[in-house]
Amino acid sequence: MATLAPPIKTDLPPQGEWTYADWLRLPADGFKYEVIDGELYMSPPPSVSHQHTTSDLLTRMRIHALNHQLGQVYASPIAVRLPVQDVPVQPDIVYVSTQNLSIIGEEEISGTPDLVVEVLSPSNWMYDRGKKQEVYRQAGVPEYWLVDYRKKTVEVLVLEEGDYMLQNVYKVGDTAVSVILTNFSVPVVEIFRK
Is 69 helix (H, G, I), strand (E, B) or coil? Predict the structure, then answer.
């Protein structure tokens, strides 16, 4: 599970006082470091199953978006600076529609993406369903996918009147459908193949 991280160096701030400048000083060591509400969270490098699932879904989303000129799709590590967060987060997959391409800069995405995907791992599932989901909700991310490679499910949450509503839980045998990424669908079995 993504946990509150112990201080890396003694000159770094205590939990609750982390800033963007502090985050920039963290090492590039394969761990994912994120700061939400001044608290540092870290996740270990993703497993092979996590990467396989992310790659398969990313490939399908990216090809669909490019073929239909719908926007851009990116994978972690990529910095996404949400309007409600000073420190960028790093979703597993991010979709930005053609209408919102202006939020994509050279170093980071600065603004609210149209769709965010988090692939759940034993180390981060509570964090992605809790703190991170709340930050995405506050930022107004219209669609949020929670992909669980252990349960082989895809949950699609859609923002309605300021809250995430469960659009559907897709399982092997189903075809997951996006509300925001126009006409995108993927057979669930295809993103969980090894």
Answer: coil
